[in-house]
Each structure stands twice: as C-alpha cells, then as structure tokens.
Amino acid sequence: MIETSGQTHLIAAVVVAASLIALAFFVWEGITMASLYDRGVKLYQKKDYKSAESVFVNVLSRHPSNDIARLLLGESLMGQNKIEEAVTQFTTLIARAPKNAEAQVRLATAFMKLEKLPEATLSLEKAQNLFKSQRNEQKSEQIEQLLQSISANKNI
Q: Residue 137 in 3-state DSSP?
C-alpha cells in the first residue's frame, strides 16, 4: 500500500510540474506576443509601414486569428502602396469575421485605389448595413455620403 501511495505522489508531482511548465509557456507566449504586437502598433503609428508589416506578419504567423493585427497589416501594406496584398489581407479578415465593418471599409478603400468602383461600392454597402445593424448611425451616414459621392463621380 505504501508503494502505491508513493507512485501516486510521483504521478501527482509529475502532473503538477507539467501543468506549471505549460502555464509558464503560455504566460511567456502571451507576454511575448503582446510586446511584439505593441511594437508593430508603434511602428505603424510612426508610419514605418515596412517594419510594421514585418512585425504583423510575425504576429499572424503565430496567431492567425488576431483580427486587429491583420487589419493593421493590411493598413501597413496600403501605406506602402501594396494594394493587391492589402486586398488579400482584408478579404481574409472578412472571411474570418464577416461582421467586421471596419474591414469592409478598408477593403473598399483599397478597391477605390485600384479604381475598382463596383467592388468598392459593394464593400461600402456591406459596411453600411453592418454599421446599421450595430446601431452606429454616424458611421452609416458617413458611408452613405461616400456612396453618394462615388455615384455622382460615375455619372460625370
């Protein structure tokens, strides 16, 4: 009976040690990712888009579900005039989070830079509907004004 008790204690100690190691890993990973993400945001704010792009690619390689990092990666690409690559990032984000109205607006902006007005209009309409469903009338109205401006320019 004493032997079984010793084995039980050993197993319990191994389980506790493994749990503590796993916890330490996840805490370290969280701190590292937060620091890396913050660095990317600061680079983006300084308009160092190339460096920000590199950081956000690194963040997304480890955490592909980080929607804000993907949005900022798209914005960093736009800042470097890598519009097609930005479209890919915004489209990926929208596929992951279809209710992300800001991603629709950013996608529309990219389409406008590419002079793809029908695609831009469609994205803006989706964004407007999302803002309405979120009861954000101010953003919805801003989108409406932009849609009217696009429509007026098409008719010229």
A: helix
Q: State which H helix or E strand residue 156 sits in.
A: none
| pLDDT value of position 155 | 62
* pLDDT tens digits, one per residue of 79-137: 999 999 999 999 999 999 999 999 999 999 999 999 999 999 999 999 999 999 999 99
pTM given for the model: 0.77
Task: Assess whether pLDDT exceeds 70 at residue 36.
Answer: yes
**Residues 6 or more apart in contact with residue 132 via CB below 8 angstroms:** 140
Give the dihedral of Cα atoms 57, 78, 51, 28; nearest 10 deg. -40
Q: How many CB atoms lie within 10 A of CB 117?
A: 15
| DSSP letter, residue 46 | T
Q: Phi-psi category of 82—alpha, beta or left, where left has phi over 0 and alpha has psi -120 to 50?
A: beta
- The rounded Cα 9 to chain-centroid distance in angstroms is 46
Asked if residues 47 and 66 have their Cβ atoms less than 8 Å apart, the reply is no
